[in-house]
Amino acid sequence: MATLSIRPMSVGELLDATLAIYRQHFGTLLGTAAVCVGLPAILAPTLLVPIVFADLMTESGNTFRGTTLLMIVTLLVGLGTLVATAAVIRVISEAYLGLQPTVGDALRFALARLVPLFVAGLAKTLVIFVGVAIPVLLSALLAVVLGPFAVLLFFLAIPVGIVLVLGYALVTQAVILESLPAPTAALGRSWNLTKGFKGKVFLLGFVVFVLLLIPQIVGAMVSFVPYVGAAASALIQLMVYPVLPCAFTLLYYDLRVRKEAFDLEYLARQMNVGSA
User: Fold this and answer.
1) Mean pLDDT per segment of 10 residues, for the chain of length 276 residues?
2) Exposure string (b/e) for 247-263, b if CB count within 10 Å is 16 or more?
3) Domain boundaries of the chain, sorted by first residue
């Protein structure tokens, strides 16, 4: 397989490159999604439903065990999603170097970075939550004083949230692909990379969302088909899952090329591999 070139790309070129890598490494991408996202999704109801049903059938109606298991399963599904995203990033990076990544290599790489990825993701979520919550709380506290203007303050949470989401869109890529002093440093790193390019981040995310909306709708529709509907819907979800992290990983490299003259030689050193 020919080595891809790292260069500045438009949104259209980023989408073309995303689909090209998706086709070339479809089996690996689907395999990582199936292991990290598909298995937890299958095991969760299998383990949870009988226990919750048994608890509800007791005289006390105690649901503590089922609630606790639900929290554990939810955490495991979330961690599986993080691992899948990290594995996809690894696959994309090796594709740039002309290598042929495998599911096992991608998963080992992702698992080694699970803790910092979790910490950075949690920090990002908290910052976005606080940023959105502040204008909402202020509007509630100052409603009597400001009157109708409190409504404007309430809706200020929307653009604040959008800006924060766009600014931290590359936190995962920074954690996975860079040697940072601390996982939380990925927030500042992502903010600096996206500075001046938040419009491009928004446009890419919006276009990918629209493109993925059709298979998502198809998956929701076929889920009602008897016998095979749920399986077909789950397969569709797994197939489209890698597209978004793939697109944003390419965007990460695009911004590094524009701002830091990033090249394949630097990437090879960063990924700890020999010259491609």
Assistant:
1) 67 90 87 76 58 55 60 76 87 78 85 91 92 78 66 77 93 90 94 95 93 77 65 74 90 89 66 50
2) bbbbbbbbbbbbeeebe
3) 11-270
